Amino acid sequence: MTALPTATGAAPVAGADHGTPAADARRDRVDVHHHYTAPEWIDWAERNGVVRREKLPPWTRWSLDDALALMDGAGVRTSVLTVAMLGRLQEPKARKESAHVALRAAGDLVREHPDRFAFYAPVFLDSPELSLWSIRHGLDELGAVGVSARTSVRGVYLGHPSQDAILAELNERSAVISTHPMEVPGGDADLEGVPPFLCDFLMDTTRAALSLIVNGTLDRYPNLTFILPHGGGFLPYIASRLEVFGHHLSPPVEPARVRDCLHRFYYDTAGPMSPSATPSLLAAVGPERILFGSDWPPTPAALVTGVTAPAFDQDPALDGEQRRRINRDNAHRLLPALAAAATGSV
Q1: Residue 19 — very low, low, confident or very high, per pLDDT cuts 50/70/90?
Q2: Which pLDDT does position 274 carry in this prediction?
Q3: Alpha-helical segments (H) within the chain
Q4: What confidence score (pLDDT) does residue 13 get?
Q5: Under 8 Å between Cβ of 206 and 155
Q6: What is the pLDDT of residue 342?
Q7: What phi and psi, each to the nearest 5 degrees, are found at residue 341?
Q8: pLDDT 10s digits, 178-193
């Protein structure tokens, strides 16, 4: 098999040029971290005065052609979409209509391209009623493979008891919950000259994971599976620190429970992974809990194909078997509908 080119035109990847399973997986990746702002939703939002198209950030200009070009360039067979909706709608009727438009667009896209796309139905941490509707409409009627949730909303983190109605419903379904930061502490907490996605997003993800641990969410809802973006933020790096100082948490967390909780999460590679970061993640959770993630389009296509994917493919901390698991097998095990779609058995 001809290996995928890197940014410099070089092809070899550790483990992929010796007939290992990783060679196939590099052209059959599953990307669990793909942001989708539906063009249909942009049209609706502009008509209703929610957004002005020309004021939106570049990453909201999603198109099918651009998405497929990115996926083909990065060797991605299937992308799982996080359905994005911008603006700060609070009026319940408008908020539900907004979600309905975005979900319908995602469902239509997957129906037209079942082997290339899947999607998560959004849940809203501050609205159990809207979340329950989105869960039932998205999973039961439109075929979503899981749900997506922010790590926090207005300072309330995922796992807070106020979300129990949402989490209980998802637990009954043994749902996969893909998480992502969006709002981070502002005002005096900002660091001038440093965009929030650089480090604040990672801290928000770490805080959400700790919230799920200290609030007992992982114990009360054992059927839930959470995907942490960006390599889990700082969580793998502070794993030993958390074990040593877990007795300072409220309630206290014993070292053995810390280790168990770390292995209850999945972690995507949209850090991106690197020779400096990968060993910490592998030591904390092992290769069977890691999933490939591009973070496109907020991460530009040139970076995904020229930096993120090649850095993963050439990471010396990974062997061919580990790459295959991360590229494809772990996602197919976690989200069986993706494997069925890839083989045409749905």
Answers
A1: very low
A2: 84
A3: 22-25, 39-47, 64-74, 92-112, 128-135, 164-172, 200-214, 217-220, 239-245, 255-262, 278-285, 301-303, 309-313, 320-324, 330-334, 336-342
A4: 34
A5: no
A6: 80
A7: -65, -40
A8: 999 987 766 566 778 8
Largest distance between two CA atoms of the chain: 58
- Spatial distance between the Cα atoms of 264 and 250, rounded to a whole number of angstroms: 20
The pLDDT tens digits of the residues spanning 198-218 come to 888 999 999 999 999 999 999
When pLDDT is averaged across residues 263-276 and rounded to a whole number, the result is: 90
pLDDT tens string 85-122: 987 788 999 999 999 999 999 999 999 999 999 999 99
Count Cβ atoms below 10 Å from residue 137 Cβ, excluding itself.
18
- Cβ atoms 84, 14 nearer than 8 A: no
Q: Sketch the domain layout of the chain as residue ranges.
A: 32-193+200-234+255-342
State the angle between helix axes of 200-214 and 255-262 in degrees (0 to 180), rounded to the nearest 10: 120
Q: Report the sign of the C-alpha dihedral through residues 10, 15, 21, 26, in that order.
A: negative
Nearest to 207 by CA among 185, 174, 176: 185
Sign of the CA dihedral with 33 first, then 96, 116, and 169 last = positive
Contact present, 63 and 14 (Cβ < 8 Å)? no
DSSP state of 118: E
- ∠ CA(76), CA(31), CA(271), 5° rounding? 115
Taking the C-alpha atoms of residue 70 and residue 297, their distance in angstroms, rounded to an integer, is 9
Question: How far is it, in rounded angstroms, from Cα 276 to Cα 317?
Answer: 9
Rounded Cα–Cα distance for residues 111 and 301 (Å): 25
Q: Mark 277-288 as b/e (b = at least 16 C-beta within 10 Å).
A: bbebbbebbebe
Domain 32-193+200-234+255-342 grouped into CATH 3.40.50.150: no
Closest CA to 283 of 243, 246, 248: 243
Name the amino acid, one letter, at 214. Answer: V
Average pLDDT, the chain: 89
pLDDT of residue 18: 31
